[in-house]
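Ticket 4471: requesting a sanity check on a complex prediction with pyridoxal-5'-phosphate. Repro inputs:
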Amino acid sequence: MESALVENMLYDVERYRQDFPILQREVKGHPLVYLDNAATTQKPQSVIKALTDYYSLYNANIHRGIHSLAEEATAAYEATRDAAKDFLGAASREEIIFTRGTTEGINLVAYTWGMQNLKAGDEVIVSGMEHHSNTVPWQIACEHTGAKLRVIPVTDAGELDMEAFSSLLSEKTKLVSVVHVSNAFGTVNPVEEIIRKAHTVGALVMVDGAQSTVHLTINVQELDCDFFACSSHKVYGPTGVGVLYGKKKLLEAMPVFQGGGEMIKEVCFEKTTYNDLPYKYEAGTPNIADTIAFKAALDYVQTLGRERIRLYEEDLLAYATDTIGSLDGIRILAAKSKTYQRSVVCCRRRTSTGSGHFAR
Ligand SMILES: Cc1ncc(COP(=O)(O)O)c(C=O)c1O
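Returned structure tokens:
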């Protein structure tokens, strides 16, 4: 790696590679170079240690025991909620619901808010660049309620057609659910503009932050989104845990998602009353170990500095775009988009055996 990438090196890459045990192994005789972060990220030692510390030192259920281990486990679990609140810029910890990941966060909103509020004649808008996790839950909600799913088209440049979006918006629109950063193209969508426009017709906006949370500094209050979902495993944390952010007044008004321990206040056969936020949406024993270790991942990113990570990625993207772009048989789609903060890289190499796909 010569060039700008080295000259502007914001990090000692070798030093940071040491933080990841998996990067010490070789694959086919070469040091491991891992470029599949959009699918899942590798884990630094601090995350692995947090996970094993829980099981080695204070394994206990949370929110229900009065012994020392239960108190330690509860405190560590709730510390992740505070860290996630700060990481996403939420106003209060009640707005941070732990889920299994982005998919469950979106399903939670579709099955609760969607089933309660949508009806025939209403419309839900998604875009043509959504992950299935942000399409299928809304299809299901529309099938159940009679609402209609509308789709923002994607331009050849790999960007949302914002004119088409404006013309799709109407008083029928009840919710817009869009991906912040595309897992296929890397496009950073203008969610601020989408949120502002959707709010003018009274629609709510859900942001799929699965890919953005690790790359951008997120502030849900500044974005003014109504819901935001992300996954720990895309931010160097463990699998099986994620966060759903929702504005408090919306979360309070929505019906419960799953029933069972922790989400109840009082249970009677005649009537059960539900717990306050955020526990109202956290039925059953949660994924305690992974949630605790998720904090170590958020701390790791904060220590590196999100702005420094972003600048380094900009350099890496420029290097990859120039280098890969000069190879035969490669077409880079929507590279160096002028519209948004970051450009898009999506390379498809056709070979006699099929096509490969490389995306941030
Ligand atoms: C944009 C986007 N949304 C949603 C998801 C689903 O995330 P998870 O599988 O962690 O629930 C992904 C996963 O790749 C994604 O890239």
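Notes from triage: Residues 101-103, 131, 133-134, 179, 183, 208, 210-211, 231 surround pyridoxal-5'-phosphate (CB under 6 Å). Leaving this open until the requester confirms.
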